Amino acid sequence: MSSTKPAAEKVVATNRRARHDYHVEDTYEAGLKLTGTEVKALRDGFASLNDGYGFIDDGEAFLDIHIGEYRDGTWTNHAPKRTRKLLLHKREIVKISHAVAEGGYTLIPLRVYFSGGRAKVELAVAKGKKAYDKRHTIREQQDNRDAARAMRERSR
Q: Has residue 121 been placed in a domain?
């Protein structure tokens, strides 16, 4: 009797500024086509999504993120900042490309993680926030924190 447990996810890197800087419209999960030293570097946590972005070119999806060099790699080590191919279904690529071509939308990585031993990236089709949108979001979060604090104080 075999049980089908969901594969545990090991998060490698997250883009914490993404939800602050963008209105996230849609999210997708994609596989990453990586070399051996890139996988080892990811397992050690050498990844940064801060200035990463995705794009569609000739019907294929690509991601430009920084994966630091593997410290025990030799001459076979990878280039830290290179374009990596995303593994998505054709209908997802078409949907993303239509959204990006529509204008104002961009493809950004939210997090990189391992799921079932395979490197995955969570992508978002997002629209950039204006400065007043960012201030409004911060104000809402502060108001929610103040309200929760008041409720806790009242229930004591």
A: yes
